[in-house]
Amino acid sequence: MSGKRLWIAVLFVVTLAISLAAQDEKNDLGASIGRSFISTQALTQCTAPCFDPNVRYGKGLTIEGSYARRFLVTPLFAVAAELPILYNPDEDLHAGGSGLVPSDYKALFITPSVRLNLFPTTAVSPWGSVGGGFGHITEGSTLLYGGSNTGKSTTSGVLQYGVGLDVKLTKRVVLRAEGRDFWAGTPDFPQAPTGKTRQHNYFVGVGAIWRF
Q1: Domain spanning 25-211 has what CATH number?
Q2: Who's near 70: CB < 8 A, 6+ residues apart?
Q3: What's the whole-number mean pLDDT along residues 16-39?
Q4: In whole angstroms, what is the distance from residue 194 CA to residue 140 CA?
Q5: What is the pLDDT of residue 51?
């Protein structure tokens, strides 16, 4: 089979699978936008002058995409397998008076999860989610006040848990408010150590879901 025919066959199979899945309207495709909140961390070592011996994080504008497939639906509850993907493209940093941290970093979290919705057939449905996956942090190459950053990009396991509220507008369109915690490994700050190996990345956002 030629490469062109192979791609046509793959496209046909994918299209057929999506069409069959869409017939039972148990799929959710969503997007949310919000902020990431990370607690201040105390430095274990601080070079003078160091009037504020902490690593402080900004409130990075963050986007989340998600796909979910409901495999059990009753009037009282529904259970779904979901895949939240969170991307924080610009997390600003500040550390003491030394500036021995990069000016920013990017974070990506991918966490297959299980979601439980209450009263899924009504207009308003609260839910909870828990799961795990991995995260990747890409650090900027320059320190806050200049100089090369010796820290490395890192990949770690991630535990995700969260709650939310879905409000149905139409049969297919749902508004969502949510809060999730992505408990992941810390960035690598060799010149500004905190003694921490993991940190909470709290995401609060709002968005919309397309149900098909």
Answers
A1: 2.40.160.20
A2: 26, 27, 28, 78, 79, 80, 117, 120
A3: 79
A4: 19
A5: 72
Residue 206 neighbours by CB distance under 10 Å: 13
CA dihedral 10, 16, 17, 19 (to 10 degrees): 140
User: Measured at the alpha carbon of residue 111, what is the angle toward residues 201 and 56, in degrees to the nearest 5?
Assistant: 15
pLDDT over 60 at 3, yes or no: no
- Round to whole Å and give the CA distance between 111 and 83: 6
C-beta separation of 185 from 201 below 8 A: no
Q: What is the pLDDT of residues 47-83, one digit of tens each?
A: 656 677 889 999 999 999 999 999 999 999 999 999 9
Q: Which amino acid is at 197?
A: T
**Which one is predicted more confidently, 199 or 100?**
199
Burial of 76 (0-12, 13-18, 19+ CB in 10 A): exposed
Q: How far is CA 140 from CA 2, 58, 83, 107, 201, in A?
A: 44, 15, 27, 11, 19
What is the Rg, in whole angstroms, of the alpha carbon atoms belonging to the chain?
Answer: 21
Residues in the chain: 212
CA distances from 108 to 6, 50, 101, 149, 179 (A): 32, 31, 19, 20, 17
Burial of 129 (C-beta count, 10 Å sphere; 0-12/13-18/19+):
buried
Contact 28, 80 (CB under 8 A): yes
